């Protein structure tokens, strides 16, 4: 697959950043062009509308999820441990794309909502063969969701909402044992 033009990626990066930092309503074509340091015509060359920008962001998410699923399948500690461990956000491209697409879904984009459901379904399909039953699968997914959500609230204050280092390894081991 040929690499998309640099300007197109800059526009998507800017759109993603605006979605994350300010929300869907402020992610206008004008604001995105300005943040990407491209003319509005330059933006429109790549994305004719906000719907096209949304589609580009969803496409980015799908590619990152495909890469994540490939990494999950090769994880030495297995898909369950990989999923739980990587549910702690580290400001990686996948984390940023998930947040941006979530903001779009919260703003009413059915395309974004569908993409998030497909993402979760893909992760469930990859994990399902490695757990003993549906309740175990639900446990893995919900622990991952909880880590992801609490990570967004964790400002590294005294109340540490998300386990790190050895505490995270202990949690991962517990979930793997409980579900296998």
From TrEMBL:
InterPro entries linked to this entry: Homeodomain-like_sf, HTH-type_TetR-like_transc_reg, HTH_TetR, TetR_CgmR_C
Biological source species: Microbacterium profundi
The entry's keywords: DNA-binding, Transcription, Transcription regulation
DNA-binding region: 28-47
Name the UniProt record assigns to this protein: TetR/AcrR family transcriptional regulator
Domain annotation HTH tetR-type: ranges: 5-65
């Amino acid at each position: 697959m040929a690499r998309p033009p640099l300007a197109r990626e800059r526009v998507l990066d800017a759109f993603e950043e605006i979605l994350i930092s300010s929300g869907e309503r402020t992610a206008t074509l004008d604001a995105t062009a300005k943040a990407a340091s491209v003319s509005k015509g330059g933006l429109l060359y790549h994305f004719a509308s906000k719907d096209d920008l949304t589609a580009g962001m969803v496409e980015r998410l799908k590619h990152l999820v495909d890469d994540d699923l490939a990494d999950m399948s090769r994880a030495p500690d297995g898909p369950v441990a990989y999923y739980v461990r990587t549910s702690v956000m580290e400001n990686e491209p996948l984390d940023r794309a998930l947040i941006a697409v979530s903001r779009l879904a919260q703003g009413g984009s059915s395309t974004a909502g569908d993409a998030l459901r497909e993402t979760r379904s893909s992760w469930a399909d990859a994990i399902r063969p490695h757990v003993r039953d549906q309740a175990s699968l639900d446990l893995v997914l919900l622990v991952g969701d909880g880590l992801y959500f609490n990570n967004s609230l964790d400002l590294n204050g005294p109340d540490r909402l998300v386990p790190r280092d050895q505490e995270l390894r202990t949690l991962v081991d517990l979930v793997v044992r409980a579900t296998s």
